Amino acid sequence: LSLALHQWRLAARHLLEAITDPLTGLLNRRALFERYGQRLIGPETAVLVFDLDHFKSINDTFGHAAGDRVLKIVAAELAVNGGPSDTAARLGGEEFALILTDVMPNRAEMVAEDIRKAFEDQKIHVEGETLTCTVSAGIALGCPVPMDFDAMLSAADKALYIAKRAGRNRIELASHLHSV
Questions:
Q1: Is the entire prediction scored with pTM above 0.90?
Q2: Catalytic residue among 17, 44, 94, 172
Q3: Which of 33, 39, 41, 80 has the fewest beta carbons under 10 Å from its own?
Q4: Active site residue 172
Q5: Measuring CA to CA, which residue among 130, 176, 161 is closest to residue 50?
Q6: Is the pLDDT of residue 178 over 70?
Q7: Strands 129-131 and 135-141
Q8: What are the residue ranges of helices labelled H in 21-62?
């Protein structure tokens, strides 16, 4: 019995390691796609994608340890601002996703703005300097005609890059999802 319990705990730990981003503690990309990849996304769900602005310059100027601190801070903002049924994940590098469920009108925009503002307000002390970092976001709102998760993520990503091109530190809504 003891051996079986040990094996079960070991398997559970390996599973957790396989689905978790080791730096931020959020789900990783694989886990996000395992959870949502085969689902159709309806009007009650929104997909938000966040990308840190000018992240490479933080790593280049202050080193990867400072960059890691910044990534942990934005991950914490995602975790705090999402609800218990929402899912935060690190997609890779400095890009994150937040899947909001039970979305009421304007909730996705408010959550994204709360995260954007809270992150911008963080004062990150590195090597005697105080960094102020920003994040851009793209939002894809679910439609009455359900869409697959990949299309929603792609639409949010396109909106994110519109936000980046429009000056960063801002949020953009995906326009017509049916043209994705």
A1: no
A2: 94
A3: 80
A4: no
A5: 161
A6: no
A7: unpaired
A8: 29-36, 55-62
